[in-house]
Amino acid sequence: MQYSLVNGERLPPFPKGKGTCAVCGADTHAKCGEVKIWHWAHRSKMECDPWWENETEWHRRWKEQFPESFREIVHTCDVTGEKHQADIKTSHNVVVEVQNSPISLEELCSREQFYKNMVWIVNGEKFLKRFKILKHTPLPEPNVPELQDIMFIPTNNERSCMMYWSKAENLKARTGRDLVRIHDTARIRGQLQPYCTGHYPFLWQRPHVAWMEARCPVFLDFGTDLLCRLEKYRNQFMCIRAVAKQKVIADIINRSQCQLIGLGHSIFKD
Fold it and tell me: Which of 16, 119, 132, 207 is deepest in the core (most CB within 10 A)?
């Protein structure tokens, strides 16, 4: 933990510091060594908050992107009295969970149900070698009226990762499962380019399925100035949307979750 209560005041760790956990009320003591980042720890091995994971430097860097008053805020359910400590909770009551390790679908659903108004930040560097963003095949904005005739089909072939079929060319086809004439999107790349503002297909070996099922926004952090938001493209397949990291942080601080859907985009630069 970055903060503990010392005489009723939230304080960062200091040498020989003693405090009280804001969640469970147990005694805490400051760990101020030379190897690990300074933090507060419970005196016993008791389980305080089962959703809490060991804090890394990556966690701490993310927390420090937000005002101190937003960090490690206890969220209490008005009905059951259940308590959990959110990594970030803004003045607009948007909760940000900064997740370094994999998470089960059951726990993901439990957290989203508990916090409701929340955003996930996931450490993508943990699986970066298995995650390939197909930058050479950008997708257009999903709701562009001029392109509603085109139906995209993802493939597992990196060289032809995105195919398409045309409704006008296949008038008798009712769905993408009917027999249709398909083409490589390279054929219409020039037509698509003006509408490409940040959406990309991707290949993910051994994916963490829970993130695909999240109902709240999920941003993957691969250690660059851009975040990759996981999205359902036209309610058909998963893609990522490139978003400037500082834009996401500013919008989380200043907006409610319902406004976060309209986050601005950035395009990857080779």
Answer: 119
